[in-house]
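assembly run, all chains below
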Amino acid sequence: MLEVKDLAKRFPPRSSDEEAPWILADLSFHVGEGEFLTMVGPSGAGKSTLLNIIAQVDNATGGEVYFRGQLIETASGAALNPGWNCQIGYVTQDDNLLPWRTLIDNVTFPLKLQGRFDGAAKRRVDELLHATNLAGFERYYPHELSGGMRKRASLIRTLAYDPPIILMDEPFGAVDAQTRTQLQQDLLRLWNLGRKTIVFVTHDIGEAISLGDRVLVLSKSPAKIIAAHSITIKRPRDLGNLYKLEGFGDMFEAVRREIQ
Amino acid sequence: MSVAVLRALPGRRSRRRLVPLGRIALGIAFLALWQFGSNAMGATWLPGPVDTIERIWKLAVSGELERDTLVTLGEAAAGMAIGGAAGAALPFLLRLSPRLMATLDPLISAAFGLPKLALAPLFILWFGIGIPTKIVFVASIVFFLIFYNGLAGILSIDPRLVAMLRVAGASEWLVSREIVWNTAKPFLFAGLKIALPRALSGAVVGEFIAADSGLGWYIQNARSLNDTTGVVAGAVIVTVLVIGINAALKRVQSRSLAWRPVSRDMTI
Amino acid sequence: MPQSRDIGIRSGTSAPRPSFHLPRLAKEKRRLLIDRMIAVILVIVLWQACSTYFGSIWFSSPWRVLMGFIGELRNGDLVFNAEYTLKAAFYGALLGGVPGALLPFVLRRHPVAGAILDPYLAGGYGVPKLALAPLFILWFGIDLEPKVALVASIVSFLVFFSTNAGVSAVNAQYVNMVRVFGAKERDIARHVVWPGAIPYIFAGFRIAAPYSIGAAVVGELISSNRGLGFMINSGATDFDTTLVFVALVTLTLLVVIINLLVSRAERWLLRWRPPQQGMSARVVGT
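ok done. output:
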């Protein structure tokens, strides 16, 4: 569904005599339909930059990105089309809820913007709100909600308009451990309902293994894929008892060694 | 700022070169429009740039320009000195009694509410129409500006720093000098920067209302004689003075406050 | 070019003034209230003392001013004149503030035009508009118009720079986010830039409010036969200090009330904002 070929990126140097370091170089991977792909890498490896390029929020310095067979990004400097016509969803690290809109206004914002807020959409939004325990808080402003609730809202905001592929950039990073496990379970449950394609980036190895169908390991800067593992742990997975799951320990070790 | 603006512009170099050209073009267009308007409406209603400059030149030659400018500047300077000194000293004194500060808080708010310019006739009633009146007037304007800023500076002192110094055995005087003065200084400077042009325009406005000399008097006098050219010329002179002072201040400030990180907290 | 910090610091009357650490204990609150009442009484006593000692012609007296205030209210003069001043201030604020608030949005889409205008706007801001009052009077007559023009010229710059700061401070992450959702330029302006700039627009008006009243009064002082400025002037000319003080007190009240109203409106409109830190700081030594 999504194919990245030899992607490379560096930012323009600050002064004309400097050489800017490459953030991404020779990065290639593919994602299949309905796959939950996780990517692990050390912090600062350029994970956010990669997702920014795929989501068309930033442009590449080299390489290509294909979406459903169509070339959507090259280094040619062509104008960006963020979200590629609402086909690529993007859940960022910060929840980025618009602070002047209530919860419900935030969640329904993309749908209303795209003119797709009909009865069916409204029902879907209600289901999502209930599934994430946010029902009842519709009229609250973001600053009145807890961090975990804002994350959930940010998640269902993208799920609500149902893009075929969703990129996620360490969405559960800034949350405490308990809330994180809860959010992970929510995510898996929601993913089960629709089997969307998800590209989930994190620095937490355990999270990557427990959530994904396949794990890709990123190297330090300049980032490239150095390993790929298929996760054989059967779904549904008991996230509360990860470490007891079969095969988890070995996988964890393998990935950890690769990241060093 | 303009350099940063230029660099931040999207687009290629040709676009950036457009900007200085555009500015010059705009300036020329403005002058041309002014002159055209003057020709169309008659010089008695709108004297053109040429007439204005002619008049300014005449005033400069006759010495009137110098005399009136010095009067106004003198009033502004004297007012600044008095108002500024009082306005800067008071916060430091008030700081010594937190109880007094808290008590006076609403009264200070109310005092800020009054537009000081409205006090002009009262001052004239009390002090007559001579130069001292204008000095008092300017002093009152400047006092409030500097006081407000000084107060903000004093209130922004981190009490932990003070506590730390006291624990180390510092006397009140040392605390004042090191922390209080240094924290308040940028605020006071900011106040000064705002106050100086205000002082000047305050002196001019004071002269509008009652005076027998000074730039404001000249403008008001010209108006009463329907001497439009005089009014415009006077206005241009005052404008140039104020803008000149602003520019000079900016240069002084960037040098003396170089140590400060650019803070965004002193915002609205 | 004036930064938003210049605008914020110099305003002597805007709401987020440096505020004091308010006491929390009931006992402290009571003591503060008593202190304040004592302070007010002291001021009145001092006033009366000056009046008795120097002669009431210089200061009038608290009692006379109070009576005068009631009298002027009753005979309608005060309301009439206050209305005149308020009208000038209000219309001027609208006439100047609306274009001032809209211009940054236009310039955002045309950054080259913004860059070209930049020095002129900064220069225009530096021009002392009050000192140009006689010019306005010359051009627009002696009725309401020159005062409205004067107020508009002042308010427009204040609101412009404040709004501009808000438009420049637009959160790039929100813009990107909203683009991913399919927003076009107009949507971005409407849903991200505009709501984000509203606090700044409000701050601009809040700062401009006392200046607009002040400018209206100055216009009246120079040439008018109506308004609070006129009251002050005619009172001073007739040595009727009572009238002068009545007008001054009314002016102060007006400004305080307007500040309160604008703050109230702002708080309602901006109820989505997390509680602000503002410029409050603790009283040293407490």
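Confidence is low (pLDDT under 50) at residues 1-7, 261-268 of chain B.

The two ends of chain B are 20 Å apart (CA to CA).

not gonna interpret more than that til we talk
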